[in-house]
Design goal:
heterotrimer; A mainly alpha (251); B alpha+beta (329); C alpha+beta (803); A: 251 residues; mainly alpha; two-stranded antiparallel sheet; two-stranded antiparallel ribbon; C: 803 residues; alpha+beta; Aldehyde Oxidoreductase, domain 3; Aldehyde Oxidoreductase, domain 4; 7-stranded mixed beta sheet; 6-stranded mixed beta sheet; 31 strands
């Protein structure tokens, strides 16, 4: 299986056209297999009682962060739907929806970055050496587990790449604000399409896993916290090390 | 750069039954090339710009040919030649719009063998695309015809989305004006598509001109009696009077009640990737009579929403002028 | 009126039957044993350097016989066109050829070849190269000036202000490469009542030969046999031999029919030599078939003009002064000269009292340019007609009167040297045309009818129409037949046949008793002129005349020798030589020919004049002893420019709402001396009219400037006129006054037949639009719609190679 497809440029030179969309099925299958394996593994694993969601609540996510998350999620979902469905043969006028969603995602990501770096402790999501020892030493994490941090990092990198390549692609079409120039070399255009495509595929894989974990029974309280903002004291105690995360009590 | 002009090896099927053609179309899918009159086939194949595995020649299928009367109008088989349409008495009497449009297709020689189905399904004439460049329409990732210096005099002013090619079909405008239904068959059945939906634009189908999917064959066109014998206007402006494609064309069907227009369909060719209905003109025309005054009042609406490219802003006044001429009476 | 038997009479040229039945053979119709099929790989890039060729996959294919690259053929110094090149300078520049057992294999092989080309800057519009910082079409420079003093590359740049001013219609102030003048220009403008100043652009467009420049070649005992597509025949041979690196005697050229050349096949072009080299390399006959698409890439195009003109007129309409500046788009191979010819045409057709010409030939990475019917004369004819109309309008004169007062006549002088003409009767042509057209009456008719307006136009065309110094060769065989050997190429104008009739006329032969030998150099052809520049009629009625006169002299000598008396006592008729006083005493041509063979010497070609060309000499040597041979070089006196002239009158009906116009009537009048072949002349006038109509309204040369891509690679995109774009009837006539410098009074007409048409059309369009001058050909419907609706045109002023 090829990773990329190729075409001839205007002068007959072979250039990359973009990612090979055959990979989409590979990604989908790989994600499903991974999920299935994990599900089986979890099913076979013995677990204690799940922590209770009742009782005292502590705040896990500010409302603004939750809003960011869900706007990002919606725009990402819109981008995936508008970007991928036409490729698999479900045809509709997708382009404007796609770039409008792209603008929404970009704006939210920029705000999120600014807020995270300047108004919050950016280190909250930083993966330290200690984090990496969590699974080995079997210690509880702080606010975010190394898996969560890792997922965030991967999504961050992929999203930034997909946005960056998307912006370059956006510049190659006519919009209400500018006319395309065809100034980018066709070889570079192909690379940009490839980056956009391959990151899209990776995002499909990663987001599939993210959704799977978000829906897993033992993790569902995180999803609730992303909707409602709080987790229970019990859930905190069961999953986090109070030494490493002291949440705001006033939820 | 190689230059190709020799016919490549290709399977040729000459079915005499539609079912056989449909099963071949299904078997070959994307790799099948449905052949009508062949007037826009051999160039593509000899140039190696399109490389299908098999040609499915429909000319031996009798059921696809001829003009028949139906309960509500007429049905024209897809491989009926344009010449047969031009000379058909019933079409000239009831649907002269179609006869006129067909009479302006290409040249008499081409009309003698070119089919209605082929004319309706033909590919765009964008010269960049015809050159065999891997543009959006050919599955690539850019449009050569819409750069800051691109030579796009003949391209779209409406409905463009990345690709700026236009529909070259003269009969397509008439079919949309006459509210024709396209009968499309495949191995899994038959579906009818309104002419207006049959022609598709780049926003949804950037590599297709019609809603025909691989495996499907346009078998006939049904024209309802709704517009039979009504007032029609057709005009095509092209650089040349023979063997040329519309810079702008117009096909108009109008139903008059007394002196005033009760209902109308105004359809422009050569301005978008599909026949372009001038809905604002249609609604403005309602209740108006055919006169110089109403022509002047309504014509400026024709180009509403048009976005010209480098070399085609003349299409805007030309659209307006053609509407003006249709409205003069 | 003359009492010619053949001159001025219609006949069926011998090639007609083959053309209407399809039996006529063109270069690609020939097959010889062992022949292989070659196809070309051409440059996909407008300008570049080939850095790597990987033909290994192609060479490994079954059926592939060989590859020919630029390394296998002689290198050619830029800007001249090469047979194959590693420095392509336009899209379609030939890089490589592959030969295979059949065409499909050759195509498959082409598809497998990988060539790496390093791109270089390119340009498609001369003004984009001329502007400071603009790209040069060649690394050596952007201007190639050819002159008697020396030719060479230069880099010429104008400032942005100079370019902007030029586009705005002001007099160009940038550097130029050529200049000539006569008279007192300042005085001329001071004397003028009206001064018209306009800029203009005429698009160069493809020659569009229906037969691409296919060639086939093989070698036998050191002789190279070439089947080619040639506009001229023997004139081709020295050039083709040079390209092949052989002597002319070692070349056999076969070109029986040519599917159009229009100026692009005048002399041997480089690609015609490719099969010779390829055949030598692989040891098999090679046919290189050029595709229709490739013909558009390299089959050449007319030179485009971007210019400015200022012209002064006296109160009576007489042109007092002309100042003209022309930038020529000379493509990548620097074939031009049209601009100066345009200046020359102005000096003759409108005969201003004083004139200055300035020119600048600029290279572009577009189709190689070449002479095309009326090269220079016809572009400027299109420009001049509306200017003459504007002058008439401003002076309150009839446009016909302004043409007449300036019309070329026997006293007209031409070019910088202000040399005279052999004869010229343009005023008579205008009078004749105006009568046929009913000019006066039509001028009185109402102009506007709804959205339609009528426009009347007058056009004039000119090209020098003659050459001298070529050879004639005829032969009478003992069967009494007259064999006329002609090296005139068969480019589709019938001139090879119509000029041959001159010999039969002199010898009073029945045409049925004559046989033309042409199209194959083994048919022993004389050295003849190029079939271009409208020269054939003048040049080869003369060569056949001198050859026939030589034969006549010899026949009379033989008659006197055989039957007694003096040669002058004898006369000819009915294919007999007889005593003037007693017609019964004579000899048939057959008997004379048999006697000539017995006598030998000059009579049967054993000896021949010293001054005939080596090609003619060899032909005579081959024919020696086969009959009475008449052979001579055309040393008849000749002085001054030999003008071919024509005028046209046209009426159009232009629809202001669609920008389309219909040509209602067309009258074309030839002024070409005595009419040689009426049907042929009518065809020339009609064909020229159609071509002019195409140039005026339709024919395009379109390049995408960003990618250097040509849009015009087929008949459709190029926009040649079709039968519904031209009037169903075009009327023609001829002044038919003999020219004193041709034995039959004939001059050529080919090129002016088109120039008058395009000029009449631009004049009529301007008339329909109340005198608006587009200053551009072609004038397309979009331009008219934009003008009528008050919109700007889509292109920049003076932009070329656009729609």
């Amino acid at each position: 299986m090829e990773f990329a497809t190729y075409r001839n440029d205007v002068w007959g030179r072979e250039v990359i056209r973009g990612v090979s969309w055959d990979l989409l099925w590979l990604v989908v299958v790989a994600a499903l297999v991974a999920i299935a394996l994990h599900a089986v593994y979890e099913a076979m694993r013995k677990r204690g009682e799940r922590p209770s969601s009742s009782g005292e609540r502590v705040k896990r996510h500010d409302s603004i962060d939750r809003a960011y998350h869900w706007i990002m999620a919606i725009s990402m979902f819109a981008l995936l739907v508008t970007g991928v469905l036409p490729i698999i043969g479900i045809e509709f006028a997708w382009l404007e929806l796609h770039w409008i969603a792209g603008i929404a995602l970009t704006v939210v990501v920029v705000f999120h970055i600014i807020r995270s770096v300047f108004f919050k402790s950016g280190s909250e999501m930083w993966i330290s050496g200690k984090d990496l020892k969590e699974p080995i030493d079997n210690v509880k994490p702080g606010k975010y587990s190394v898996a969560q941090k890792g997922l965030h990092l991967v999504v961050t990198v992929l999203t930034l790449l997909v946005i960056a390549s998307g912006i370059v692609m956006f510049l190659q079409i006519d919009t209400p604000w500018w006319q395309r120039t065809n100034a980018l070399s066709e070889a570079m255009l192909g690379v940009v399409f490839f980056v956009h495509g391959i990151t899209t595929l990776a995002l499909i894989g990663v987001i599939s896993l993210h959704i799977y974990f978000a829906l897993r029974p033992e993790k569902l309280f995180y999803t609730r916290s992303m909707i409602k903002g709080w987790i229970s004291r019990d859930e905190l105690a069961a999953n986090h090390d109070p030494q490493r995360w002291t949440p705001d009590e006033s939820s | 750069m190689a230059s190709f002009d020799v016919m490549p090896d290709i399977q040729l099927y000459q079915p005499v039954e539609l079912d056989d053609a449909l099963s071949l179309a299904e078997r070959y899918g994307d790799g099948g090339w449905v052949l009508g009159g062949g007037q826009d086939t051999y160039g593509w194949l000899k140039d190696r710009a399109k490389n299908p595995q098999a040609m499915i020649d429909l000319s031996g299928i009798d059921s696809l040919r001829g003009i028949r009367t139906t309960d509500d109008g007429i049905e024209i088989g897809a491989t009926t030649t344009l010449r047969e349409i031009i000379r058909d008495e019933r079409i000239n009497r009831d649907f002269s719009l179609l006869a006129q449009a067909a009479g302006r297709v290409a040249s008499p020689q081409i009309r003698n063998v070119g089919t209605l189905g082929g004319n309706l399904s033909q590919d765009t004439r964008c010269w960049y695309y015809r050159r065999g460049l891997a543009c959006y329409r050919a599955g690539g990732n850019l449009c050569y015809a819409d750069g800051p210096e691109s030579m796009n005099r003949e391209h779209a002013v409406l409905g463009a989305s990345r690709c700026v090619a236009v529909s070259p079909s003269d009969t397509a405008t008439a079919m949309v004006a006459l509210e024709a239904m396209m009968v499309v068959a495949s191995a899994s059945g038959v579906r009818s598509i309104a002419a207006e939906d049959f022609f598709v634009g780049p926003a949804t189908h950037i590599t297709q001109m019609t809603a025909l999917e691989p495996g499907e064959i346009l078998t006939a066109v049904r024209i309802p009696s709704k517009w039979a014998g009504q007032r029609f206007y057709f005009e095509k402006v092209a650089d040349r009077d023979v063997w040329d494609f519309a810079l702008v064309s117009i096909a108009v069907a109008m139903r008059l009640e007394g002196d005033s227009i009760a209902e109308s369909r105004f359809v422009c060719g050569g301005v978008a990737c599909t026949p372009h209905r001038l809905k604002n003109v249609e609604s403005a025309a309602r209740g108006n009579s055919l006169s110089e005054a109403s022509a002047d009042a309504i014509a400026p609406l024709a180009s509403a929403g048009a976005i010209p490219l480098n070399y085609n802003h003349f299409k805007l006044p030309l659209m307006e002028n053609l509407v003006r001429r249709a409205m003069r009476g | 009126m003359n009492d010619y038997k053949l001159v001025g009479k219609d006949f069926t040229p011998p090639d007609v039957m083959g053309k209407v039945t399809g039996k006529a053979k063109y270069a690609e119709d020939f097959r010889v044993d062992g022949m292989v099929f070659a196809r070309m790989y051409t440059s996909p890039m407008a300008h570049g350097k080939v850095t790597h060729i990987d033909a290994s996959a192609a060479e490994a294919m079954d059926g592939v016989i060989g590859i020919l690259t630029a390394d296998d053929v002689p290198a050619v110094e830029a800007p001249n066109g090469a047979i194959l090149t590693n420095s392509p300078a336009f899209i379609g520049d030939p890089i490589l050829a592959v030969a295979a057992v059949d065409e499909k294999t050759a195509e498959d092989a082409l598809a497998a070849i990988k060539i790496t080309i390093e791109p270089l800057p390119f340009v498609t519009d001369p003004l984009d190269s001329l502007i400071a910082g603009g790209p040069d079409a060649r690394e050596e420079g952007n201007v190639y000036a050819r002159s008697r003093e020396g030719s060479g590359f230069r880099t010429v740049k104008w400032t942005k202000e100079q370019i902007d001013d030029f586009r705005a219609g002001k007099e160009p102030t940038g550097e130029f490469a050529a200049e000539w003048k006569y008279g007192d220009l300042d005085k001329g403008f001071a004397d003028a009542k009206v001064i018209i100043e306009e800029n203009f652009v005429t698009t160069g467009y493809a020659h569009m030969s229906m037969e691409p420049r296919t060639a086939m070649a093989y070698w036998q005992n050191g002789t190279c046999y070439v089947h080619g597509s040639a506009q001229s025949h023997t004139f081709w041979m020295p050039g083709l031999a040079r390209l092949l690196g052989i002597e002319t005697k070692d070349l056999v050229l076969i070109s029986e029919n040519t599917g159009g050349g229009f100026g692009s096949k005048i002399g041997a072009y480089p690609i015609a030599a490719l099969p010779g080299y390829f055949s030598k390399k692989i040891g098999r006959p090679v046919q290189l078939r050029v595709t229709g698409e490739q013909e558009y890439y390299m089959g050449s195009a007319r030179v485009g003009f971007q210019g400015w003109i200022r012209m002064g007129f006296a109160e009576n309409g007489k042109a007092t002064a002309t100042d003209v500046f022309i930038i020529e788009d000379i493509g990548a191979n620097a074939t031009g000269g049209d601009a100066s010819s345009a200046g020359g045409a102005i000096s003759l057709v409108y005969d201003p009292d004083a004139m200055r010409f300035r020119g600048l030939p600029v290279l572009t990475n577009t189709t190689p340019r070449g002479a095309q019917r009326g090269p220079g004369q016809n572009q400027i004819a299109a420009v001049m007609a509306p200017i003459m109309d504007k002058a008439a309008r401003e002076l309150g004169l009839d446009p016909l009167a302004v043409r007449k007062i300036n019309a070329a006549n026997n006293a007209t002088t031409v070019y910088e040297e202000q040399r005279g003409v052999t004869s010229a009767y343009l005023e008579e042509a205008l009078t004749m045309g105006a009568e046929m057209f009913d000019w006066e009456n039509r001028r009185q008719q109402p102009k506007k009818n709804g959205s339609k307006v009528r426009g009347l136009g007058i056009g004039q065309g000119y090209h020098s129409a003659g050459a001298t110094g070529f050879d004639g060769l005829i032969r009478i065989t003992p069967d009494g037949k007259l064999h006329i050997h002609t090296g005139v190429g068969n480019l589709g104008t019938y001139s090879f046949a119509s000029t041959s009739r001159a010999a039969a006329e002199v010898l009073k032969c029945d045409w049925e008793n004559c046989e033309i030998h042409n199209g194959h150099s083994e048919k022993n052809l004389p050295w003849n002129s190029y079939q271009a520049g409208s020269v054939s009629t003048f040049a080869h009625t003369r060569t056949n005349y001198v050859a026939a006169m030589d034969a006549l002299r010899k026949m009379k000598l033989i008659a006197a020798d055989t039957m007694g008396g003096e040669p002058d006592d004898y006369d000819i008729d009915g294919q007999r030589v007889f005593l003037t006083e007693n017609a019964a005493q004579g000899m048939s041509y057959g008997a004379i020919a048999a006697r000539a063979i017995q006598l030998g010497g000059e009579y049967s070609g054993q000896t021949y004049p010293d001054d005939i060309n080596e090609i003619t000499q060899r032909s005579v040597q081959n024919l020696a002893g086969s009959g009475l041979v008449g052979v001579a070089k055309d040393n008849l006196p000749q002085e001054g420019t030999i003008p071919g002239l024509a005028c046209a009158f046209v009426e159009i009906e232009l629809d202001l709402e669609t920008g389309k116009y219909e040509i209602l009537d067309y009258v074309g009048i030839a002024e070409c001396g005595t009419v040689l072949f009426p049907a042929g002349l009518a065809q020339q006038m009609k064909g020229g009219a159609v071509w002019g109509m195409g140039m005026a309204a339709l024919e395009r040369h379109v390049y995408d400037p960003q990618y250097g891509l040509p849009a015009n690679v087929g008949y459709h995109q190029c926009g040649i006129p079709t039968y519904l774009d031209v009037p169903s009837v075009t009327r023609t006539g001829a002044v038919d006054i003999a020219d004193p410098q041709n034995p039959f009074g004939a001059r050529g007409i080919g090129e002016p037949a088109m120039g008058c048409s395009v000029a009449a059309l631009t004049s009529a369009i301007s008339d329909a639009l109340d005198g608006h001058i587009f200053g551009r050909t072609p004038v397309s419907p979009d331009m008219i719609v934009n003008h009528v609706t008050g919109r700007d045109q889509s292109f920049l002023p003076l932009q070329t190679n656009n729609f």
